[in-house]
């Protein structure tokens, strides 16, 4: 999450998705191996329901959201389930950035934050690790 700021930079959806693909491709193989059955999608902005699920304060902007069953909560009966989903919110990310490089860095940070939730990390743990 990030404090709301005036939008400085806007990319096409194709440009934004390219940056997301680059961020995914840059992940270490060990992380990639743990991302089976996880889909990464891009939306413009979160819905009211997604904001409620995330417990986002009205003064903050939701940059991404993880929805699924974290690895730490899966049992041997895990299977035949829909993919977990990491949603990155393009307009929300762009609002806090002035350059394409800042957008690229924020995409990577947000992606790593949401992957942290997939690994079972809490908001507090992610904040301590520098992924707030």
Automatic annotation (TrEMBL):
Gene3D superfamilies: 3.30.2010.20. SUPFAM superfamilies: Metalloproteases ('zincins'), catalytic domain (SSF55486). Coiled coil: none annotated. Pfam families: Zincin_1. CDD domains: MMP_ACEL2062. InterPro entries: Zincin_1, Zincin_1_sf. This is Metallopeptidase family protein.
